Amino acid sequence: MSAMNRGRRLASILVVASLGLGSLTGCETESGKAAFVGDTTITEDRVSQVYDDAVAKTPTPEPAPEASGSPAPAAELPVTRQEVVDLLVSLELARRVVKEKNMPPAKEPTEPGEIAQALAVSGDSEYVKLWAEWLDLQTVITENTPRAQLTDEGIMKVYNALAESGAIEAGLPVAQVREQFGAAIFAEAAILVSTSLGAEAERTDTKVNPKYDPVSAPMAVGTQQGPVFYNLPFISSDLVTDVSS
Question: Which residue ranges are recorded for the region named Disordered (predicted)?
């Protein structure tokens, strides 16, 4: 796959929507549960499995020269347990949507090695493999869901999430945001996915451990400097207008 196609794939905004996820009870929390999606339980052990594997398979950067004999700062880990939970919950919801609506598989499945460098984790780690599956699922949902037109509130949700990550200037009015976003295809795709997954989260009564609440969707948007990763808060399905024929 060409570098341009890899960039387009990473430029897709990934988003999950849920309307008020519930929290686990104290008993469920004590028993090591991270989240419930329908009859699927995401345990703390499962989170640790993905997280520990990602940390163990993080490429070691070249050590920076020490300044005035001071110890070099510790290397920043490329993933957190929160990000693992975000990914696992988003994946489970997306898998269910695709299965229930009998959507076809991705035409060009993402190879983990194609996105490993951007994620700063080895391509043979489970974390990167799950990310590759997540990219494919959001593409399938986008391609097989009637297109929608963003409301002002919807486009500002996407914009504010980008601004919070530092990827774009904060505080712009909606008219200027729409001008900068242009056709806003990436944001429209985000809302298409968010609407589908939000309905699924409601249907399955998805719940998360309070320490991981709120769960957000892991996302990536392409820039000239490379992909920018950030999280988008849950978005309500009323932020789009169906314009399909």
Answer: 56-76
